[in-house]
Structure formats: structure tokens, C-alpha cells
Write a structure and sequence with these properties.
Length: about 250
Amino acid sequence: MIETEGGPAVVVRGLNVVRGKRRVLPDISLVVPSGQVVGLLGPSGSGKTTLMRAIVGVQIVESGSVTVLGHAAGSAQLRREVGYLTQSPSIYSDLTIRENIRYFGRALGLRGAALTAAVDRTITEVDLDSHADQLVRDLSGGQESRVSLACALVGRPTLLVLDEPTVGLDPVLRRDLWNLFRDLAANGHSLIVSSHVMDEAARCDRLVLLREGRLLADVTPAELLERTGESDADAAFLSLVESTGGEEIW
Ligand SMILES: Nc1ncnc2c1ncn2[C@@H]1O[C@H](COP(=O)(O)OP(=O)(O)OP(=O)(O)O)[C@@H](O)[C@H]1O
């Protein structure tokens, strides 16, 4: 794990991204502190995945800069330091859960007893112990997405970028995963987590709200409620989206 010594995990400056003919992110700037869980919220199509792709370094950008743990996004030094969970599972259907996680662990340089321990720990963290030797193609959608999450977690990256990690999961599993995210942050990891589920917003340290590629707000959950005068994140977000017409207000 890279020691950030209180420095930010991610710094985005003047980021412009065009996808197809569409300017998806027009001049976004943002700082993600380290050791925190930052929720990335916004309506469908607002640019959350595109911003995450730019942070991971897989998005072609028109202009601007993205610095991750002090290095340019996507640079070789970050290969073992950034874990990315995409929305669609990126795992092998003809391997078992354990084989998939082992494969990703090996690719990250883990070997021998350390690899076995990391794989076992991660299988337990995503609550798949009783299915560990089942082929991925025989799993439910929710189980499959937890295998993808495990593959992103197994190397304990300094920064975890998770695109809707709890989608399709029941409330107990969602709670357990959020407890895991909080534990990781308490141990110095930084997490960027996109979600459509507003009650998850309360579990974040900060919330970044996007609308049509623009940054509507970058606040703590308490600030969001205070400044909108609403009592829950769902209502606060709606009030914000409807009242601003897409203009940045904070
Ligand atoms: N490959 C592509 N080519 C052209 N436009 C794209 C491409 N991928 C995404 N877009 C557009 O970019 C915009 C932002 O998409 P993005 O996937 O970042 O949104 P999102 O906030 O993650 O949405 P969701 O919550 O539905 O996953 C959308 O208008 C989308 O149609």
C-alpha cells in the first residue's frame, strides 16, 4: 500500500471527456481525500462511470489531468495500488470462485501462503465461503458481482474504485459490504463508490453529486442535509437536482 501521508488519494483538474459526439465531463475538478469512503452519486448517464474510468486510467481524455496517489492515472506504479470493480462482471465463467480470485491475486504478485490467505480472507469478506468451489457460470447475478468485488479486493489496493458494488444485493449483504468498506477506510484505504441507493450515502464520509457531467456538490452527508433542509439523502438529492438546474452550488 502506498503511504499517502495525509495527501489526497485523487486530484482531478479541469477534466474534459468526450465520448462519441458527446461532451460527457465538461471541465471537472475534484479532490478525493485519502482514508475516506467517497460516494459518487448522480442520475443514470450523469458521468459517474466515465469519471471512475478516468481515475483508473482507462478513459481517453480530451484535456485536464488526473493524479492518483501522486502519479498520473493509469501509470505503471499504480498497477497494484488501484482496484477497479466495473459494472459488468469481468471474471472467468469457466473457473470457480476460488480460481478466479487466485488468478487475480497471482496477477498482482501474490504467491504461496500469502496468496492462499488473501484468497480465503476475501472469499469470507464477500460471504461466498459456501460456494467457493462452484463454477462462476452457475452463480446468481448477485453472487457473480461479489466475485468481481473479491477480485478487486484481493490485492488490498490503496485505492478502490467500485462501480455500484451493492447493486442487486439484499439488505443484509449490503450492510456487511458497507461495514467492510468502512473497515478498509479505517485502515487507510481510500474508496470511491458509485451508487443509486441513497440510504448508502449516509455511510460515506463525503458525497460527490454529478448531474450531466457537472459537479453539483462535494459535501459531507451532514452538509447535504443541512444545506437542502431535507431529512434524508434521497429527498436532499432530488431537491438539489431540481433546484439547481445543473449549476454547481458548492
Ligand atoms: N462508449 C460510449 N460512446 C458514446 N457515449 C457514451 C459511451 N459510454 C457512455 N456514453 C455516454 O456518456 C454519458 C455518461 O455515461 P456514464 O456511463 O459515465 O454514466 P453513469 O452516470 O455511470 O450512468 P449509470 O448510472 O447509468 O451507470 C452518457 O450520456 C452515456 O450515454
